[in-house]
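Exam revision sheet. Question 4 asks you to relate a sequence to its structure. Input first:
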Amino acid sequence: MSYDVIIIGGGIAGLSAAWGLRHRDVLLLEAEDRLGGRLRSDPCGGYWLNYGAHLFPAPGSRVDTMVRECGLETVPVTGGMMGLSVGSTILTSGRVESYPFRLPLSVRDRIAFVRAGVKVQRAVARYHRLDRHYDFEDDRTFGEFLGPLPPAVHEIFACASRRATAELDELSAGCGIGLFALVWGGKGSLIARNVLGGSGQLPAAMARELGDRARTGCHVNGVESGGADLVVHCGGEELRARHVIVAAQAPYASPLVAPVAERAADALAKLTYGAFLSVAVETSETTAMPYDDVYAIATPGRAFDMFTNQAHALRAGGKRRPGGSLMLFAGARAAAALMREQDDVIIERFLGDLYALYPQTRGVVADARVRRWELGNVYAQPGRGRLQRVLEGPLGAHENLHLAGDYFAELGNMEAAARTGVAAAERVDARLREVTHA
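Answer key, structure tokens:
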């Protein structure tokens, strides 16, 4: 079989590329049994359970355009996104700058927290003035940037770092600063919306539109040159294409592209991913809960690093419906170790800390489901910026191999992945038009 373009990988990058090329003879191949990658959710009565990516970008973004084209709706996150819990104290409102003075910390810890916070805030201001961030603070780790911290303060910043699935001594300083820049975007944040119905609604809708042009359960074994075309080996089948877009995660993409683009394969092999696991919790309360107007809380010192209220999108005005949906997130080394445990062990640990955080949840947990993500998120280590140039643009002797993925950003996110898929699709479409009109 021969195609205009074959896309390898059915996450948001591959789906975005396929969406932009659906007027062409396109075939998308995904190894898993479903499309969407970390965009995964299940319906749950009038709510939904989210397991992975859940914050969607603002109107005008590439992802938002696809959401609307699929007939879906996003709503803004209006609840607190910068909550912080230390011990029995939960802060979900007020200026972040006031947190060091409102938490149960010693004077020494308060001073260290303030100094580190001011250092990060000033760096975020510099970050926002840049067009490209790959080389920003790329020569040291976030931990080195912060400097020595007392244990209690170190744990607070480490908890934030684990949101990017990395520890303070792994994440580049620029990547850590970028993480705070995303959250401190406030009402103008790039990532401050939810899809009604759950994040999995988007890949499901795109899959319906693509139909048999998107295949799941297809393991690609290799890509090689075949004259002016490329040959994709998939489950004993040889598929030819004028162009190939590899949108798989970097560890899978690297050996696939090596026969065609060796330097790019080497760069892909050097990219770093961290693990995360999530526990989606269905609740059955019949009255208001203390977190109804909260979206996210960092929870240092607990089994999970983040508490998120996934029912927040349905709490805007009107009568509060019974029940709810939460997602508890753990990232980096502790998550990688914990995911080797059985589901019931993970759930027991997470729920124990949930009850300690919000005792009102005891007795109203109706269901809890674990999802493991071994390659949870790509993040930049020091020196990441030096790899960027090798990955960009068309590759191979005939310039018909293209890469797409969230690893093009210094911190993986949905919009960054989608933009790379769209960019690859636009390059391919332009080249196909040139040949047609020649």
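Marking note for examiners. The domain at 2-40+58-73+195-270+383-437 is CATH 3.50.50.60 (FAD/NAD(P)-binding domain).
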